[in-house]
Amino acid sequence: ERFVPDPYGAAGSRLYRTGDVVRWLPSAVVEFLGRSDDQVKIRGYRVETGEIEAVLHDHPTVNDAVVIAEGTGPQTRLAAYWTPSPGAAAPDAAQLAAHCRRRLPDYMVPGSFTELATIPLNRNGKVDRRALPAPVTTTAAPGDTPLGPVAQLVREIWRDTCGIDAGPHDNFFHAGGNSILAIRLIAEIQNEFEVTLPVRAVFEGPTVVEMAQLIENQIREEIAQMSDSEVIADSTLTKEPNA
Prior knowledge:
This protein is an alpha+beta fold and 243 residues long. Helices cover 32% and strands 19% of the residues.
């Protein structure tokens, strides 16, 4: 498994597969990204966590970073841990997510960013993943208005139907959602709100707030298309008898 045939050498010669994941740059420099045994599977994609860590290291205020897969099965999501550069103003989670999104595909953007004073190491000097704290779930930014009744109900459906307890602006897929859970989510939303929404609505509005807005827009459209008689028949208002 480790000693593989050398396609460039003499007959019978071998190469040793180290398990290191590297990138060969145009300058002929080989950049170390991580280990192949750190590879994880997120929503059907094979992800090298070392590649995400390299992007985080490129942020001017990040001193060190490590990315792990948190959770199991469909609820697996990427969690990033990072330490700030000395004397630098620490960025918030939204800034780090935007930095990653400029360099990485959406499925490789971590769903949480937890700031640490130091990255825990074991006696061999490697990252002690078991010593990492529980990831900090992103929440609404200061100054955000409270959730309206539709958004609050959407958030409850996320939690009860998909097992995702997320903040108002957390991405459904970053928080552990996948295409199967999206189908289940839309079915429950259609049942609860009595609206017709396609599954792509989860991709168009992947946060609680955005999804609630799509639902409200759909309700308004369906009401606008109803005739006056349908609106009256559907109304719960009753007329008081004359005195």
